[in-house]
Amino acid sequence: MNKLHRARLVATTATFLAVATSVIVACVGDDSPAGPATPDSDGGDAASDTGSPEPEPPDAGSKADADADAAADAGPACDKTKPFAAPVEVTELNGTPSGGARLTADMRTVYFHAGGGSAGRLYMATRASSSGPFGTPVLVPGLTTSAQDGGAAEHATIPALSPDGLTIYFQSFRSAPAPSATVNLWTATRGSAGASFGAPSLVPEINGAENTGQPFVTASGTTLYFSPRRGGSGAANVFIHRAPISAQGVVGPAEPVDELNSGTSREEAPVLTVDELTIYFARDYDVWSATRADTQSAFSGLASVPNVSDETGQDLPTWISPDECVLYLQSTRTGDSKIFVATRPK
């Protein structure tokens, strides 16, 4: 029995398995993500009181330059010709069923969703380095009340942020204003990276009579990839689509990415590299990839990604690092949906 058939026997399989730019952290040893909190400005622990004056923090530019210099001195972070190692659980983000992890380019902030059913909410967390543990997660401001008393009206999963962090897309079955499908793509904007998002609205041109979800915005900010269901309830009717995003942030008409859609399998959860030449996606809950010569060409060379998928679970890729050395995914291999990470060796 293949993984898709097994998945159909799981009563709690979601309509779309849930897949950036502020701060994200998950809770450790708790039943649910922590409530809203104010994270430290640098995403780390407060400085110890040693009696000595604290040094002035460097400005963002000098810190970014220092990080870039250190990375250059260290050499490549991995050997991209080698396969990923087996994924490991990001335990601090998995207090409740979690997924959809999307990181900022510096890998110090993560956006993700946590909570099952109508309790699904968007959280963020930060960390002091690109590879350390994340701190306590907080609700993404503006999308959820502190009391989380909105029920399904506040439901949100699979976040996708624009490169400047000012626009967020997510999937939700919130019903106001009432859409025609159960799951739809929503969007919200804010004036600055530290501000709260405004009221969400449905994404024009994208949603239809059937479920639409799993958004991903390319690093160029010019294309929105997503996975709608079209043509009925069968697994083979979930396809990868894309739509242009204008300089004004308007999403245009969508088209299927035909070369990725077999017509006989379930293709979903698209994730692209920074150069947009490699795409990771899920086919029947296994992680696959494909490449292309330039952004105007079709993808080819479709193949399952070694070591990443697990026969006992449903696996979806959610984010790939700019250097292509770190792949985040959500998986049900241990039961509930959880966030995992796989890295390539040097």
**Into which percent range does the helicity of residues fall?**
under 10%
Architecture, according to CATH?
Answer: 5 Propeller
Strand order of the largest sheet: 1-20-19-18
Count of DSSP helices? 2
Shape: globular
Task: Give an overview of the whole structure.
With 346 residues, the protein is mainly beta. It has a single domain (3-33, 89-341), classed as 5 Propeller (Tachylectin-2, Chain A), CATH 2.115.10. The protein is built from two helices and 20 strands. It has helices spanning 3-8, 60-74, and strands at residues 88-89, 98-103, 109-114, 121-126, 138-139, 157-161, 167-172, 184-189, 201-202, 212-217, 223-228, 241-244, 255-256, 267-272, 278-283, 286-291, 300-304, 315-320, 326-331, 338-343. The chain has a four-stranded antiparallel sheet, with no helix packed on it. A hairpin with a 5-residue loop joins strand 2 (98-103) and strand 3. Residues 4-62 have low confidence and may be disordered.
Task: Describe how the helices and strands are arranged.
Blueprint: H1 3-8, H2 60-74, E1 88-89, E2 98-103, E3 109-114, E4 121-126, E5 138-139, E6 157-161, E7 167-172, E8 184-189, E9 201-202, E10 212-217, E11 223-228, E12 241-244, E13 255-256, E14 267-272, E15 278-283, E16 286-291, E17 300-304, E18 315-320, E19 326-331, E20 338-343
Antiparallel strand pairs: 1-20, 2-3, 3-4, 4-5, 6-7, 7-8, 8-9, 10-11, 11-12, 12-13, 14-15, 15-16, 16-17, 18-19, 19-20
Quick take:
With 346 residues, the chain is mainly beta.
Give me some keywords for this one:
Tachylectin-2, Chain A; 346 residues; mainly beta; single chain
